[in-house]
């Protein structure tokens, strides 16, 4: 990690709500932002931004690294058959080599597209391998160990809750509550764990200061099944088992009732919005403006490559904005609100809002450089409009995490891209053969 780095000749945009600092600079020392503004300074490493937008890196709040190698395998299917017929058999067939390759593939795409930190949900085994792979890349992450018990109806992924918690103990022992990578406890969703398992998971996480990460109210069929099984609507049921609160992150929340939204607001529960996956699986459109108006924290995630098929924050921002304009009219969800969800909102979801999400002295130097001078962007000068509607991931010129350059001039610094491409093809073939889906 560079001890001192200076970005100059930049259009510095400290946050979604702030003005752009023209001809600005950012000084980094020991992985943190030391100074920001219009100034001149010397540094060991000097980056001429050449007029690019310099802004906080994206913080994606819901991804599945373990599913990246499944990309394109199960198309045009509704959620529950998609899970049971393809995704769960493939997750069950993972070994340490295939899941490592899948995690690295995800990280390469995230870094290339300007994501600097994320919250993930992995599968029930090999989470240690995911930790190791992510650590190699230099990204910051909170990695969820997935919990599924006998109630999930898919025996190959069913793990007794006590055994699953023992796995979490091992992960904590080896990886701890790190400054850059941490563990989350991730019951898959209400239908994957019995009530005692969910209560035990919530208690375990809170005793250790860990985030809870689950799916909720993604599709109407899921909501009806939860109601039939528990007698409660999804959010009320999760609340009854301890799966709501400021330390709880609920992915999707497409189908919620007004009384459920009150629970989300009153408990400080975080909503993780995945617009592209919600469209691709036919789930519906989450009521994001209503959540924001109620004071509910909303962030953005791409979900998994198996249901998207891209891990692209730019795509998610665009879809998030356009979907609400279909629902509520062109004035709904302005671009700056969307960028705030993709940066500050993600930081709040991960509990790292004091560390990232904006460019401020003392915060982590998680910074991206985005070129806004391409033919597809000009002549707009508004950075939010450009990012949400015109830019794409290929416009990211540089990705910096903790002051370390992870991507520059089209090259990944911490991942061997050519080796990874070869490994992906080889490991996918073996994985699909093990799953009986070749």
Describe this structure in words.
39% of the residues lie in helices and 22% in strands. The chain contains 14 helices and 17 strands. It folds into 2 domains: 4-56 and 364-411, Urease, subunit C, domain 1 (Roll), CATH 2.30.40.10; 58-350, TIM Barrel (Alpha-Beta Barrel), CATH 3.20.20.140. With 438 residues, it is of the alpha/beta class.
Q: What labels describe this entry?
A:
438 residues, alpha/beta, Urease, subunit C, domain 1, TIM Barrel, 2 domains, eight-stranded parallel β-sheet, 22% strand, globular
Write a brief caption for the model:
This protein has 438 residues and is an alpha/beta fold. It has helices at residues 79-93, 96-112, 127-137, 161-175, 195-208, 220-230, 234-240, 258-267, 275-280, 288-293, 313-328, 335-350, 383-390, 417-435, and strands spanning 4-12, 21-29, 32-37, 45-48, 53-56, 58-63, 115-121, 140-147, 181-187, 211-216, 248-252, 270-273, 298-300, 367-370, 396-401, 404-408, 411-412.
